[in-house]
Records
---
Amino acid sequence: MKAYVTKDAERYERFMLGHPMCHFTQSPDWGKVKAEWEGVAFLCEDDGGAVVGGLYALLRKAPFMRGWLMMSSRGPVCDVGDGEVLRCLLRAVRDYAASRRCYAVTLEPDVAASDLAFTEAMEGMGYKVRKRGANFEGINPRFVYRLGIAGKDADAVMAGFHQKWRYNIRLAERKGVEVRLGGAGDVPAFHRIMEETGRRDGFVTRSAEYFGRMHAAMAHKGRMRLYLAYYGGELVAGTVTLMYGGKCWYLYGASSDGHRNVMATYLLQWEAIKWAIAEGCRVYDFRGVSGDMDEKNPLYGIYRFKKGFNGELVELQGQMDLVLRPFTRFAVGFGFAALRKARTAFRRMKGGGAGRRGGDG
């Protein structure tokens, strides 16, 4: 068995698209969205030459220091219960990271927190599991909300929604909300209501350039849809939805301050879910929610909205770190902590709230 860095994007993607653990952040196309990072793909083969594992990682140089961070969002992709495959693949990752003077390797696997055998295997290879909070402490959300749609038609899926959610979808239709698919030229308009949403709800938004890169990298293969909802000819809401390897993800959502009573956000979700059903997806992933179910939690509303679609709350392993250069890791962590505090203080001075952003790898 061997694992190695590969430049064969076609073979790598063929494996990813056919594996049940695939994730859009493990696609090299997603690396094009993260323009400030350098991407690298790994494959693991068994003794017969068949691919049995893969991982896509991003590298970024530490500011003002010699050293890099290697980060893999939702990797590794393999049978995580096969210790030989897991060790072989992550040994290649570690060796490559060391050759690039990486100070740490950070993984956020798409593996349930309840899989204690996986946790033990990762700790045995030197990875440390970060303290597990209930909110959005990591690069990616640790609690996600997923709707299983395998083998179901649209009527069966709709029947499972909470009664109020079905009503809101039909209300939007009766009110005349029109859902259209946006193109690259619609990205600035979507970004404007995304900023409006961020100001209203107190979170940090991505730039219009970022969404433009995402559209350029993902939409041409049919893997991204920008859904836009109009009421009376006015753009009132939008979502970004990604599809990869039989799964569909709700990545970003935005709504204007006006006409919120027409329930456009519910209809947008339904249109995206119908797309996932039509394409034969197994899962529609609403992505991050808070694990703190206290209704007083400011993030509870996100969970309540997603819960009405009758999916399943999934707790993942969270962030795992393999520290290769402790001093560099400490210095970088200290610098970023100081920067975050300064940014938070600045936002509070401006009256913008503490700010947050759910990760996307």
Note: The longest strand covers residues 51-61.
---
Amino acid sequence: MLYSDKLLDYVENYLAQIDFPEEPELLYTPISYSMQGGGKRLRPVLLMLAYGLYADEYRAALPAAAAVEVFHNFTLLHDDIMDNALIRRGKPSVYAKWGKNVAILSGDAMLIEAYRLLGQVAPAHLPAVLEVFNRTAVEVCEGQQYDMDFEERQKVSVVEYMRMIELKTAVLLAGAVVIGAILGGASEEDCRRLRRFAIELGLAFQLQDDLLDSYGDERLGKAIGGDILEGKKTYLMITAMSHANEEQREVLRTTHLDATLTDAEKIARVKALYDLLEIPHLTEQQIAIRFERALAQLEGLEALPERVEELKQYATSLMGRKK
């Protein structure tokens, strides 16, 4: 059995060996730049762990794991254009460094590279893997569109928000896990359970991201309050709006636009309302519910208990983060 830290090393080494051409430089250099940007690599590691529930020859799953990670980074290139994001993982985004046109075209090439990597999986599994990957890719696009739609809407419900983050964040985790399970030879029932596990884990992970943006630890490198300053409709903001009175809602709606306040004052004002309405506690409750639902899906898998336990431990480590 391989452990998550070792699998991460295998994934990193495999990604580092992908040989992108040197020319044209403005097409391929941004790809290498984005892929070397770090990140948690949780999608390929989850794929490898799911594969390892049923099989031992880890090398057979590496092309698919790399494909999922290349696809994920492709989405980030295009997301940064749509969000006008200048920073990605603590350094200039491809969009900021090379401009919109380069980010679009390099992203397109990354999507093609993801399919090239997928083409290396065992022929017997390729149709099923492509079906999962294609459905996942479309759902990610749907989630991004909903996210942009919500920016233009005054009111978004918690149900709508949860569906959006399921599509934008959780389904790619689910796709990765199911692809790994397919390659390992899992049954349809186990694939179904693992997909639900990853959906719930992805929801918990994104809700934790929302919470950490306002209540994380700056000493660990996460800038606090960015979502508040943008007036972003996160789980915290949407839940606060649903619990607030009209006067409080007006504060939540307008604080980020108030030019008389410093950034620190804006963050403090909104967080004071969050605390009054017990939003951090409500968010932590929802994170715990989603995580417990995720773990429950792992019960009864047709896999060795110690291998299931490794997947559980990795999922738990994701929820124990502070940034």
Note: The chain has a mean pLDDT of 94.
---
Amino acid sequence: MLHARVKSGRDASAHFDTDIPMPMLRFATLVFAATLAATPVLAAPATPLPQSVPLAPAPAMPLPTAPTVAAKAHILVDFQSGKVLTEGNPDMRVEPASITKLMTAYIIYGAMKRGDLTPETPVTISEKAWRMQGSKMFVRVGHQVKVDDLLKGLIIQSGNDATIALAEHIAGSEDAFANMMNHEAQRLGMTGTRFTNSTGWPDANHYSTARDLARLMVALIRDFPEQYVREREKEFVWNNIKQINRNRLLWRDPTVDGGKTGHTEAAGFCLVASAEREGMRLISVVLGTASDEARAEQSLSLLNYGFRFFETRLLRKGGEVLVEPRVWKGASKTVQLGLAGDFYVTAPRGQSDTLSLAIDMPPRIDAPVAKGQVLATVRAKLGDEVVAEAPAVALAGVPKGGIFRRMADGVLLMFN
């Protein structure tokens, strides 16, 4: 049974204060005292929170052990809920190699969204970009190449030349672009990451973690879904050269629709992959495997485990009214509380019968209340275990009430 849990407000009068002059307060006391017995004092309601979208029924089963992953670090995360399904050394600093290019793409996509670039914008290839070693798109120095083509070279071929050309076009130099990358990493909460270049070229001061790279992949899909579709392309032709996407999972599993590979001698073989099955999207990160084949196998093993034994459902939509608790001394008597964004929960399959929602309310809410102000917490539980929580916010503001409203509420609080 889903329920709302509201803390008692019986001791609210112990904290009573007022800005009403005492003579007026005494007068108000006389006026209202006779009607107090018939005046209901509204407390925060214990309205049930029914489950609008139940988890899909499935036979109950014990949750099996996650697969063993032969890699330096790995993590499996649900895209919508952010739930970590399994992990190994997720916060260990490792060399991200060409997975770095996800951040380069993220910044380029941001520039396109702002209108600073279009897919047709020409980019002049510098000598530095042309001379860059490692994987190449094979652009020519001094030539102009469209942003769209360079992005395909970055994503599909993992071309270092295309990546540097884009970085220089945006920031003027690759060093300046690395500063932009670090700024975005900080904004996204990638606390274990530092970039020194746009390509993932080996550098002792260039590192990340499995957790941070999963967070980056989630942000890229969430913030730029219209650009993310490029990552499912298996090949493209540039300058009469067919270039093949190095993400083997695009051929092995039709639900895999993007990601990024990486490899250096120090980093090993790495892969960030994303797949979607029946509306559930998972992100896997595998860093430091022994071979190209191993990174594909280990990634697919993680994805299959997540989809087989977990499910994710939308329990509440952002902006939906959950409860309307009492507001004291406000222009209105209640305030609508809801979630700022959609509330997803990931749970083991077969455990939906124990899922419940509860909202923890403060003992008392006083005006003024600002729109978006956090006033309570919504928690999803499986049995006694909290599996997800989110802040409940005011969906509309409640300004301070007039003097008579404040007087009336002041008197009620004195006798409550």
Note: The chain has eleven helices and 15 strands.
